[in-house]
Design a protein that fits this description.
Elements: E1 10-16, E2 19-23, E3 34-36, E4 39-40, H1 49-58, E5 63-65, E6 72-74, H2 77-88, H3 93-99, E7 102-109, E8 114-120, E9 127-133, H4 135-140, E10 142-147, E11 150-153, H5 156-171, E12 174-184, H6 193-196, E13 200-209, H7 216-225, E14 232-233, H8 238-247, E15 257-259, H9 260-263, H10 268-277, E16 280-282, H11 286-298, E17 304-307, H12 313-318, E18 321-325, H13 331-336, E19 339-341
Parallel strand pairs: 10-13, 14-16, 15-16, 17-18, 18-19
Antiparallel strand pairs: 1-2, 1-13, 2-3, 3-4, 5-6, 7-8, 8-9, 9-12, 10-11, 12-13
Helix pairs in contact: 1-2, 5-8, 10-11
């Protein structure tokens, strides 16, 4: 999706203590009000807002850079948006990391779609593990929820409320991340994903917008006129991906968008039929990307694939023309591709 959008994320919504917050301000500048029902609030207005901000900012590798007088991000745009959100509530990444230093971590990977860091003294005398990641996965790994100053069982009714907020955000073309934590008497000796990222306490959601690039809609229309079909393959949620694709004129109805996991059910023959009518593939794995490219080629199409991550390399290689991102692209993607897009822009 990064070639179609501006790759400049801004948190515009948050969900914590069963309330939806509106976050104002644009770009990465940490200026803007946070509002509940139209009224400005502070980080202390809700019992778990500080926890949401702390998890998002500490389980995070991005930094805000204001050395040129304009706020830029060093690192991942999604993480940068959370750091800017924290700044709007008076918390800085530097300050939080100084008070609660990171003592261990389980890095993010696209398989589990989560990242966890360990910190001392956030809860007095304890070690905490802070996890942020994809809501569908994090929610399923939580057995409790922090709600209005209490820790209660994360029962079906409460899960449904959180899932409903998540769906509402995703349908507004927001990318959503969730935050959870767990406390320990001591740091686990050999922390594993199974041991750490399970039985957690759910805290909340942040929803961020990555607006489409203004010139892309026109480029997609030019492609269509030239007989080139544009298809979106993304790790985003189906609702988010569909909302962006609709804004760009890529889709007409929801039947043209499917989830990556649905591809696993199809035979090669059935998949060749499915790719004829599908315009948006959401929540895809690296294997799904290869399957889609293969099916399109078997249907007689010449395929060009854009990608930036290590997980795109196989599909970039499989496509007739692999196009890597010059700015956000990893070395693996660039070395696999035939073309490198120096400005990461679809229109180019």
């Amino acid at each position: 999706t990064g070639t179609l959008t501006q790759n400049e994320m801004t948190v515009v919504k948050a969900y914590v203590d069963d309330r939806i917050l509106d976050v104002e301000g644009i770009g990465y500048e940490p200026k803007g009000d946070v509002k509940l029902n139209g009224r400005n609030i502070s980080i202390h207005s809700l019992p778990n807002l500080r926890n949401l901000v702390s998890i998002g900012t500490l389980s995070n590798d991005a930094q805000l850079d204001n050395s040129t007088g304009t706020y830029k991000i060093i690192g991942d745009p999604t993480e940068g948006a959370i750091v800017a959100f924290a700044g709007k509530l008076g918390q800085t990444s530097e300050q939080l990391n100084m008070v609660y230093p990171r003592i261990a971590e389980l890095p993010f990977d696209s398989g589990r779609k989560m990242m966890t860091t360990f910190h001392s003294n956030y809860i007095e005398g304890k070690i905490v593990s802070f996890t942020k990641g994809a809501p569908d996965i994090v929610i399923n790994k939580c057995s409790k929820i922090a709600l209005n100053g209490r820790i209660v069982d994360f029962n079906k009714e409460l899960k449904d409320k959180v899932l409903s907020a998540n769906t509402k955000f995703a349908r507004s073309a927001l990318r959503v991340l969730s935050a959870a934590y767990k406390s320990w008497d001591r740091l686990p000796e050999h922390p594993s994903f199974e041991q750490v990222e399970n039985d957690m306490i759910f805290v909340g959601l942040v929803g961020m917008i990555d607006p489409p690039r203004p010139e892309v809609k026109e480029s997609i229309a030019h492609c269509r006129q030239a007989g080139i079909e544009t298809v979106m393959i993304t790790g985003d949620y189906k609702e988010t991906a569909y909302a962006i694709a609709k804004e760009l004129g890529m889709v007409e109805h929801e039947g043209q968008a499917i989830m990556g996991e649905e591809l696993d059910k199809y035979s090669d023959e059935k998949l060749r039929e499915v790719v004829k009518r599908t315009k948006v593939y959401a929540r895809v794995s690296p294997e799904h990307k290869v399957k889609i490219v293969t099916a399109l080629k078997e249907n007689g199409h010449i395929t060009s694939m854009t990608g930036d991550g290590v997980n795109d390399a196989l599909a970039l290689k499989k496509a007739d023309i692999g196009v890597a991102m010059g700015i956000t692209g990893t070395d693996v993607a660039k070395n696999t591709a035939e073309v490198i897009l120096t400005d990461d822009n679809f229109a180019t």
